[in-house]
């Protein structure tokens, strides 16, 4: 919301999708929900390139809301309330790794 210190964005989840816009080799990022919104159409490489840079870019953009949320969760956590600091560290690493895996399409 405005004034909360967080810049509002189209709510997630966002999904990377190849061919979603009717172009079979083009990647898009869409926000899923009651209505579907295009977040991005990716055209940073040759369609169908062997390195799949467009797909990787789409997955990274689609993961942005989750990455932001996990960073907020970790930043706003209170490590002093955890009995064992190692438990807090493991919790934070697990949340970060899960968000990173989504960004990498794993």
Entry keywords:
alpha+beta, three-stranded antiparallel sheet, 106 residues, single chain
In short:
The protein is of the alpha+beta class. The chain contains three helices and three strands. The two termini are 31 Å apart.
Question: Describe it for me?
Answer:
The chain has 106 residues and is of the alpha+beta class. Helices cover 40% and strands 15% of the residues. The protein has three helices and three strands. It has a three-stranded antiparallel sheet, covered by helices on one side. A hairpin with an 8-residue loop joins strand 1 and strand 2 (27-31). The longest helix is centred in the last third of the chain and has 19 residues, at 85-103. The protein is elongated. 13% of the residues are buried.
**Structural class computed from helices and strand pairing:** alpha+beta
Strand content: 15-25%
Whole-number radius of gyration? 17 Å
Which outline best applies? elongated
User: How many β-strand runs?
Assistant: 3
Number of separate helices: 3
Helix content percent band: 25-40%
Low-pLDDT segments: none
Overall pLDDT level? 83
Q: Describe the main β-sheet briefly.
A: 3 strands, antiparallel
What layout of secondary structure does this protein have?
Layout: E1 14-18, E2 27-31, E3 37-42, H1 53-62, H2 64-76, H3 85-103
Antiparallel strand pairs: 1-2, 2-3
Helix pairs in contact: 2-3
């Amino acid at each position: 919301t405005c004034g909360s210190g967080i810049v509002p964005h189209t709510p997630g989840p966002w999904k990377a999708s190849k061919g979603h816009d009717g172009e079979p080799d083009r990647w898009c990022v869409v926000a899923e929900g009651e209505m579907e919104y295009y977040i991005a159409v990716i055209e940073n490489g040759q369609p169908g390139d062997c390195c799949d840079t467009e797909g990787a870019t789409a997955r990274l953009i689609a993961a942005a809301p989750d990455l932001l949320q996990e960073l907020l969760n970790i930043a706003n956590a209170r490590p002093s309330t955890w009995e064992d600091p190692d438990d807090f560290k493991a919790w934070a690493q697990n949340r970060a790794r899960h968000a990173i895996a989504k960004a990498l399409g794993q």
